[in-house]
Write a structure and sequence with these properties.
Length: 228
C-alpha cells in the first residue's frame, strides 16, 4: 500500500502535466489561427487610391485648358491633344516635366505645382474625353509617311512606327502614347527634338528619330494627323 500511494501520486502529476501541455498547445494554435488573418491583412499591399475625376476636371480647367482645350482637344497645332491619351502615359510625362527629365520650361512650371495625386486626377479626367479626328494635308508626303509608319525603312534600320504605336495609332497604355489624329506641327516638333537631342526621355524614340531626315519627319507627322 505504501508503494501504491507514491505511484498513484506520480501518475496524477504526470496526467496534470500532460493536460497543461495540451491546453497550452491548443491555446497557442487558437491564437495563431486568430492572428493569421490579421498578419495576412497587414502583409497585403494597400490598394491605390482611385482618381478623383471631379478634382481632376477642376484642376484641368484651372491649369491646362487654356493651352490644351476645355476637353483636351487642343485647337493650337503647337500644343498636343490630350483627350483619349493613355492616363498612365500622361502621368509619366507630368512627372518627368516636374523632375526636369523632359525639358520644357512652361510645362515644368505647371507640373512643379502638382502632387502625384493631382497628376493622376487630371490625367484620368482628360483622357476619358473623346479625341477629335484630324486629317492629313500634304498629298505629296502622306504616302511616304504611310510607308515609314507601317513598314519602316529596312536598309536604314528605321523601325515601323506601327510596331509600338499600333497600325491605327492607338498606342500601348503606359509605354507608347496614342498618336492618332495628333497635330502634325506638334508631332514634327517632338520627332525633331528626339533626333536633335532636345528631348531625351525615351531612348527608343531618340534612336529611331536619329535616322529620320526633315522630309521624312514631316511626312510621318502629316500621316499620323490623319490616322483613325
Amino acid at each position: 500500500m505504501k508503494l501504491f500511494v507514491p505511484s498513484l501520486l506520480a501518475a496524477l502529476l504526470a496526467m496534470s502535466a500532460v493536460s497543461s501541455f495540451a491546453a497550452g498547445e491548443a491555446a497557442s494554435a487558437a491564437h495563431g489561427a486568430a492572428s493569421a488573418p490579421a498578419a495576412a491583412h497587414a502583409a497585403a499591399p494597400a490598394k491605390a487610391a482611385k482618381p478623383d475625376l471631379v478634382k481632376g476636371g477642376a484642376s484641368f480647367a484651372a491649369v491646362c485648358a487654356s493651352c490644351h482645350g476645355a476637353d483636351g482637344n487642343s485647337g493650337t497645332p503647337a500644343n498636343p491633344k490630350l483627350a483619349q491619351q493613355h492616363p498612365e502615359y500622361l502621368v509619366k510625362q507630368l512627372q518627368e516635366f516636374k523632375s526636369g527629365k523632359r525639358k520644357n520650361a512652361i510645362m515644368q512650371g505647371f507640373a512643379s505645382a502638382l502632387s502625384d495625386s493631382d497628376m493622376k486626377n487630371i490625367a484620368y479626367w482628360v483622357t476619358a474625353n473623346k479625341a477629335k479626328t484630324g486629317f492629313a494635308k500634304d498629298k505629296e508626303l502622306v504616302s511616304l509617311g504611310e510607308r515609314i509608319y507601317r513598314g519602316g525603312v529596312a536598309d536604314r534600320q528605321i523601325a515601323a512606327c506601327a510596331a509600338c504605336h499600333s497600325p491605327n495609332g492607338a498606342g500601348i497604355p503606359s509605354q507608347y502614347p496614342r498618336l492618332s489624329g495628333q497635330h502634325a506641327d506638334y508631332t514634327t516638333a517632338q520627332l525633331t527634338a528626339f533626333r536633335d537631342g532636345g528631348r531625351n526621355n525615351s531612348q527608343p524614340m531618340s534612336q529611331v528619330a536619329a535616322r529620320l531626315n526633315d522630309r521624312e519627319i514631316r511626312a510621318l507627322a502629316d500621316y499620323i494627323a490623319g490616322l483613325r
